[in-house]
Design a protein that fits this description.
Blueprint (H helix, E strand, L loop, with lengths): L1 H11 L3 H16 L3 H51 L15 H41 L4 H11 L5 H39 L3 H6 L18 H39 L3 H5 L2 H7 L14 H40 L9 H10 L4 H47 L10 H16 L1 H19 L4 E2 L2 E2 H40 L5 H10 L24 E2 L22 E2 L28
Antiparallel strand pairs: 1-2, 3-4
Length: about 600
């Protein structure tokens, strides 16, 4: 404890506290205070002194921290203002080891005040430029959004640099230039609209008033609206007027072309053409070169269309006669080629269509001309087959004549012309033997024609293959019938010979007629009813019988054709009266003679 007192005494030496400690020790010596009590008191004094020192140190630290914070805040504000104002010069901080905090604070405060004043001045400059910009923008766009303006001003608080200010000044100069350019463009647009309205015969005042009423005023230029909507409206109007001009020019040129064709076709006098001479001289110019007042007006167009309509009606009456004449020519070509003409241009239909105005006679005439050309080409492609058809029909006629000639009991008489008939019969017999090969060749050529053109060969509306196949099938049936008849005759001869050998005499006529009845009434030179098969005629080929079916021999070739019209050969004579009728609908063969 003595050490503590000595230490305290050393600390307090040379101070008022040291004197007080000496005085206290003297008092303790007079009183006779024990060492324990002395040490206790000294410890209390030392503790109380430490607490006093600690409080003072803490107060000093707080003051230092506050100064540090104040200096840092001022320096940060200076840095922010310098960044906002775009100042490139740096604020030089003093060395903290040399300059005290209070000196640093005293140095930064004037700088901060100067920057604040500069900021206020810069804000004022920005506000003036912004107000001018917004005013011009309002004039250009007719739209003022105060919220956007305030937002822009608030954004400007964060960037007040000279670069930003220069940018606004450049923007202001650009808007002023744009305003001047728009005024010039509006005047140009108005002049162009005026020129187009004069040419087209349209009211100018009504046209521009629909865009903006100020465009038709005669005041100063600044009174005219120069907004985007006005410019767009003028540009759109000019585009529409140009499109209308182009459309009218095209329409008038087409109408004038029709007029010239009608004038030439109808041989119109010069008096009728003179009223449109000015229009003709203008229409040869380019679009931009047409500037005459009212030359493209709707009134002139209506006048031209009325003249075209008048001449067209006159032309229609004349074309109708030409159409009928060409249709008759088409029908004659089709008749000679045995093909059916197109029913779409039938006289009864074309007359009604022309009278009702549903079809242009020129188009109808062109259609008939196309059909005539097509019919001629079709006829040329069918010529080879048609020649062979004629030869086949002629051979069938000769065959029918030969059968009639063979039935004539006086064919060998010495009458006039008998030798001529004998020569004809000889030639007919040779020709009849060639009929099967003629038919086969005709079928093959017809198939080749159909395959090459992918369509059926029609003869008077019916398919030729069907007729040829049925003819060939019926001829085969006829030959089979002849063979059976010959076999029947041989059998009858054998039976007669046996009966003569048994009875020694010939059968009675009644018995012979009984044998004939056993052949189901078959006659050598007739059908079952004793009727002669009619002689064929050329015009009978192709008579339609819907019930007649295509023969089975053709079914293998019928790949590319659908349901076709069938031809009937019910009037054709296939060479022998022994065949009573053609094949029935079911395709069954004629009943063969019975042996009884």
């Amino acid at each position: 404890m003595v050490g503590v007192g000595a230490g305290l005494g050393l600390v307090m030496e040379g101070t008022s506290c040291g004197a007080l400690l000496k005085e206290l020790q003297q008092i303790w010596a007079e009183v006779g205070e024990s060492e324990v009590e002395k040490n206790k008191v000294l410890l209390d004094i030392e503790r109380e002194c430490l607490e006093v020192y600690r409080r003072k140190v803490d107060d000093a630290n707080r003051t230092r921290v506050q100064l540090h914070q104040s200096v840092a805040a001022k320096e940060a504000e200076v840095a922010s203002l310098m960044a906002t104002l775009g100042e490139h010069k740096l604020y030089m901080k003093k060395d903290k080891g040399i300059v005290s905090l209070k000196e640093q604070l005293a140095a930064v405060v004037p700088v901060l005040e100067n920057l604040k004043c500069e900021k206020e001045e810069r804000i004022k400059q920005f506000s003036d430029i912004r107000s001018q910009i917004e005013k011009i923008r309002f004039e250009l766009s007719e739209y003022n959004d105060q919220g956007d303006n305030e937002s822009s001003l608030a954004e400007d608080q964060h960037d007040l640099s000279t670069r930003k200010l220069n940018s606004y000044q450049a923007q202001l100069r650009a808007l002023q230039k744009d305003k001047s350019e728009r005024l010039r463009k509006v005047l140009e647009y108005i002049n162009e609209v005026h020129s187009l309205c004069i040419v087209l015969g349209i009211n100018f005042g009504t046209t521009v008033n629909e865009i903006h009423p100020s465009l038709h005023q005669n005041g100063v230029e600044q009174s005219r609206n120069i907004s985007d909507s006005t410019l767009d409206g003028l540009a759109s109007t000019i585009s529409k007027l140009k499109a209308e001009r182009k459309s009218r020019i095209q329409k008038m040129r087409e109408t004038m072309e029709s007029l010239c064709q009608l004038w030439k076709l109808m041989d119109s006098p010069e008096e009728e053409k003179r009223q449109f001479s000015k229009v003709m001289s203008v229409l040869i110019l380019p679009e931009e070169g047409i500037t005459s007042s009212g030359v493209l007006s709707q009134e002139i167009i209506d006048k031209m269309e009325a003249e075209v309509e008048r001449l067209t009606k006159l032309k229609t009456s004349r074309l109708k006669d030409i159409v009928m004449k060409r249709r008759r020519e088409l029908e004659e070509i089709c008749q000679n080629a045995h093909i059916e003409p197109d029913v779409s241009t039938a006289p009864e239909q074309t007359d009604a269509l022309i009278d009702s105005g549903l079809i242009d006679p020129s188009e109808l005439l062109a259609n008939i001309e196309s059909q005539i050309l097509k019919a001629k080409e079709e006829s040329l492609s069918r010529k080879d087959i048609m020649d062979r058809i004629n030869k086949w029909i002629a051979a069938c006629d000769e065959e029918a004549w030969l059968e009639e000639y063979n039935q004539d009991p006086k064919r060998y008489s010495a009458g006039r012309g008998a030798h001529i008939n004998l020569k004809r019969a000889e030639k007919a017999r040779i020709l009849v033997t060639k009929i099967p090969s003629m038919v086969d060749n005709l079928i093959n050529r017809t198939f080749a024609w159909e395959n090459a053109r992918n369509k059926p060969f029609l003869y008077d509306g019916g398919r030729l293959i069907s007729v040829l196949e049925e003819y060939r099938l019926s001829r085969q049936q006829k030959e089979e019938e002849k063979r059976r008849y010959r076999d029947q005759k041989k059998l009858e001869s054998i039976l007669l010979a046996e009966k003569e050998a048994i009875f020694g005499s010939k059968p009675t006529p009644k018995r012979t007629s009984s044998l004939n009845r056993k052949t189901n009434g078959y006659r050598p030179n007739g059908n079952a009813n004793g009727l002669k098969t009619p002689t064929p005629r050329r015009s009978s080929l192709g008579s339609a019988t819907p019930e007649l079916l295509t023969p089975r021999s053709y079914s293998g070739h019928n790949r590319c054709f659908g349901d076709l019209r069938r031809l009937s050969t019910s009037h054709l004579n296939f060479g022998d009266d022994s065949l009573s009728t053609f094949t029935s609908i079911s395709g069954s063969e004629p009943e063969s003679p019975s042996l009884g």
